[in-house]
Design goal:
Layout (H helix, E strand, L loop, with lengths): L3 E7 L3 E8 L6 E4 L3 H14 L2 E8 L6 H19 L8 E8 L2 E8 L5 E5 L6 E2 L2 E2 L2 H13 L2 E8 L3 H20 L16
Parallel strand pairs: 3-4, 7-10
Antiparallel strand pairs: 1-2, 2-4, 5-6, 6-10, 8-9
Helix pairs in contact: 1-4, 2-3
Length: 195
């Protein structure tokens, strides 16, 4: 049975359609009108081996905030729907990703309880036109609507592009690990019997 979802979110600020295939090949078709976010979602799909399609329009004439946050919301909702009752998944995942001078780690628990720990101290700068403070907003939207506990930690790094990219790659790899099916697991990985 395919673990997939198609989510559409339409507000006065954004119009987003996203499809996700958890057991994919890492293929992405992304058009958000936010070029740096397109790049991050493309590598997120590739490194998580998720198939991802995103079409988004937003009020980017104001700024990128609503578009970035809402895409995080929709991606989180897609993971939640695609995982269903979470039977057989490993639940936990973690990844350590180096990128040149940068080292980032991400750990996740698909517990159903949203919580974000974001220990990534960045200057208030832009990568191109992209405000790097929006990375936290993206991950916050994601965890709130996925029901994930996500810890994003920067060990060290200097180049802001490398830092953000390492965080997205580590998140993808941690989620890939957490969503994998393990034939040894009966039901869900919880003594409560429900996630």
């Amino acid at each position: 049975m395919a673990r997939s979802a198609v989510i559409e979110r339409i507000t006065k600020e954004t119009q987003i359609k996203l499809s996700l295939e958890i057991d994919g090949k890492g293929e992405a078709q992304v058009c958000t009108s936010v070029p740096f976010l397109d790049h991050m979602l493309d590598l997120f799909a590739r490194h998580g081996l998720f198939d991802l399609k995103v079409e988004a329009r937003g009020d980017i004439d104001i700024d990128f905030h609503h578009t970035v946050e809402d895409i995080g919301i929709v991606l989180g909702a897609a993971f939640k729907e695609a995982l269903g009752d979470k039977a057989g998944i490993r639940r936990y995942g973690n990844a350590v990703v180096p990128m040149d001078e940068t080292l980032a780690t991400v750990a996740t628990d698909l517990s159903g309880r949203p919580f974000l720990v974001y220990n990534v101290s960045l200057p208030k700068v832009k990568i191109g036109d992209f405000d790097v403070e929006l990375v936290k907003e993206f991950f916050q939207g994601f965890v709130n609507h996925c029901g994930a506990n996500l810890h994003v930690n920067l060990q060290y790094g200097e180049n802001v592009h490398h830092i953000v990219e390492a965080c997205f790659k580590a998140a993808a790899r941690a989620l890939d690990q957490a969503t994998q099916l393990d034939p040894r697991i009966e039901g869900v990985m919880s003594t409560k019997g429900k996630l």
